[in-house]
């Protein structure tokens, strides 16, 4: 590619001005890496890889999948039979977007945004498609002594962002924390791993049943709770006591809830 602004063609070839002195370190098309980053997406939720190219001129931007060195798009044209891949570009911006609808975990990998210069230049990005995992500690069944505190701990992992909400149900009915029964509360700690504790104080027989933790951005998980009155099933005799509660954790959370209610 010939650059007609080069000093060698305008009669001043005897004067050399290094690009670094003139602040011209980026001549011709170049990537804005601050806006062309790795992406983490949820399984089934549309993913977008953004490539920002400055000073593109009349060059073409293409997207290549490194796994099989497959040309996915060139300009706004798609070159794959997989209709989930779409090239999106607004003429008023410098952004070239590769949109992947209904991404699956197998779509994870390196994708390259390439500009058709001579030779071509490219910028690689990594797409990570994850499926959040919901777990209720101690499940699938818990055995609780009547009068003790039910402490259900729901953990959400591998989510690009904390779930905006976590819904708890008992026998498919949403739990009302302000019900006349009283003593029911939830404590949620959001982060890379989000934890939600459901506390039901002074457990009684009607509190038995199926409890479900349903994060807004992950699959729900259920646990079957049995409230016992002097009964000792085999599950409790063979380590079930550990599965039914985490006594120290439950006690601490019960104290916190009691103090909050004061």
Automatic annotation (TrEMBL):
PROSITE patterns: IG_LIKE. CDD domains: Ig, IgV. GO terms for biological process: synapse organization. InterPro entries: Ig-like_dom (IPR007110), Ig-like_dom_sf (IPR036179), Ig-like_fold (IPR013783), Ig_sub (IPR003599), Ig_sub2 (IPR003598), Ig_V-set (IPR013106), Zig-8 (IPR037448). One of its GO terms (cellular component) is neuron projection membrane. Residues 29-115, 132-229 form the Ig-like domain. This is Defective proboscis extension response. It comes from Danaus plexippus plexippus.
């Amino acid at each position: 590619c010939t650059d007609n602004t080069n000093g060698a063609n305008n009669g001043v070839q005897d004067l050399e001005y290094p690009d670094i002195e003139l602040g011209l370190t980026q001549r011709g098309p170049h990537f804005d890496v601050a806006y062309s980053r790795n992406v983490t997406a949820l399984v089934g939720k549309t993913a977008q890889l953004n490539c920002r190219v400055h000073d593109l001129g009349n060059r073409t931007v293409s997207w290549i999948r490194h796994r099989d060195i497959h040309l996915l798009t060139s300009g706004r044209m798609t070159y794959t039979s997989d209709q989930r891949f779409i090239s999106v570009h607004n003429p008023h911006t410098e952004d070239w977007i590769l949109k992947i609808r209904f991404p699956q975990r197998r779509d994870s990998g390196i994708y390259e945004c390439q500009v058709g210069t001579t030779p071509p230049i490219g910028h690689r990005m990594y797409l990570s498609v994850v499926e959040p995992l919901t777990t209720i500690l101690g499940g699938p069944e818990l055995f609780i002594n009547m009068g003790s505190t039910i402490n259900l701990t729901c953990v959400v992992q591998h989510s690009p962002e904390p779930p905006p909400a976590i819904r708890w149900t008992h026998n498919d009915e949403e739990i009302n924390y302000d019900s006349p029964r009283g003593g029911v509360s939830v404590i949620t700690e959001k982060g890379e791993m989000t934890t939600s504790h459901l506390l039901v104080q002074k457990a009684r027989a009607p509190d038995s049943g199926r409890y479900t933790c349903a994060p807004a951005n992950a699959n729900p998980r259920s646990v079957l709770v049995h409230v016992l009155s002097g009964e000792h099933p085999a599950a409790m005799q063979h380590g079930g006591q550990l599965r039914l509660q985490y006594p120290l954790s439950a006690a601490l959370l019960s104290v916190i809830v009691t103090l909050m209610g004061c």
